[in-house]
Amino acid sequence: MSKLNVIAIAAGLLFSSGTMAGQHMSKDVYKSEKDRIELEYKAQKARCDSLAGNAKDICLVEVKGEEKTAEADLDAQYEPSRENRYKARIARTEADYAVAKERCDDQAGNAKEVCLKEAKAAEAAAKANAEREK
Questions:
Q1: Do residues 82 and 132 make contact, with C-beta atoms less than 8 angstroms apart?
Q2: Which stretches does DSSP call E strand in 25-106?
Q3: How far apart are CA 51 and CA 61, in angstroms?
């Protein structure tokens, strides 16, 4: 998945959350957003089918991570609470880790081991930050 798509999705979520700040999201809006996330996931997943090898694996992990992150962000908007914001941060952290880990598969030997350790350290740091903000 291109970084531009990721940025566009993140910006869309950011702006949509800004317009809903202070407002309660109706059940219908929540359901329609849930459906939109599912449709977006299916479209992005189909795009991954044109790839092969580890590029396809990375694409699929990115798409799944975006879906989980978008759903967690939506839940945090629908039912704003510290716990749901925490869950959204953890979903983002786990998605980032899964992608980083998959990208490490392109390397071999010591470089791969270092890559995996760096990815795990970044995940641990992000989870610790989320826990502090909880």
A1: no
A2: none
A3: 13
How far is the CA of 100 from the CAs of 19, 59, 62, 116, in angstroms? 32, 12, 10, 8
Residue 71's CB is within 10 A of a number of other CB atoms, namely 18
Q: Is 0.85 topped by the overall pTM?
A: no
In the chain, DSSP finds a helix count (H) and a strand count (E) of 5, 0
Higher per-residue confidence, 19 vs 40: 40
- pLDDT tens digits for 77-88? 999 999 999 999
pLDDT tens figures, 34-49: 999 999 999 999 999 9
Spell 6-23 as b/e; 16+ CB within 10 A means b.
eeebeeebeeeeeeeeee
Which tokens hold the place of 82?
């510290």
Buried b vs exposed e over 79-94: b needs ≥16 C-beta within 10 Å?
A: ebeeebbbbbbbbbbb
- C-alpha separations of 23 from 9, 18, 20, 78, 79 in Å: 22, 10, 5, 9, 11
